[in-house]
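Following up on my earlier thread - several people asked me to post the actual chain instead of describing it. Fair enough. Here it is, all 161 residues.
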Amino acid sequence: MKHTISVLLQNKPGVLSRVTGLFSGRGFNIESLCVAETLEPGVSCLTVVSRGDEAVIEQITKQLHKLIDVIKVTDISDHEYVEREMVLIRVKAESHTRAEVLRVIDIFRGKVVDVSAKSYAVEVTGPASKIQAVIDILRPIGIKEIVRTGTIAMARAPKTK
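Reply from S.P.:
Thanks for posting it. Predicted structure:
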């Protein structure tokens, strides 16, 4: 099962290396990793996506808690959450395919961020399933290059009555 884990950690040299080393040292694969500073200076939020059963994920979270610079670990897969990923895709846009590429990008609420004589660079943001869908539709047209951010996620706020 896929799990999305949010880790608050000190923004210091070597911390990310220790976190990724924890995964690789125990034979766990990281499917996605995204990290950036939070509102609090010196603190970063790392979002990591990995697969495993409950025992594996519990072991990962316990090991993460043991790392000195880790502040908080949350498996947000246990809660309702919002996830997003961004992709930049350079797709062939020759005279006979330009309109089709623009229609596809419009349907997925993406935008063209760069134009050349033979290609468009497009940006699409959304859950991983949406990103995969746009890639699958653009592939027959001719994808030249793809760059993805990886998943970022945030637990949904509790609903009050």
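Helices lie at 15-25, 54-66, 98-107, 128-142. That should answer part of your original question.
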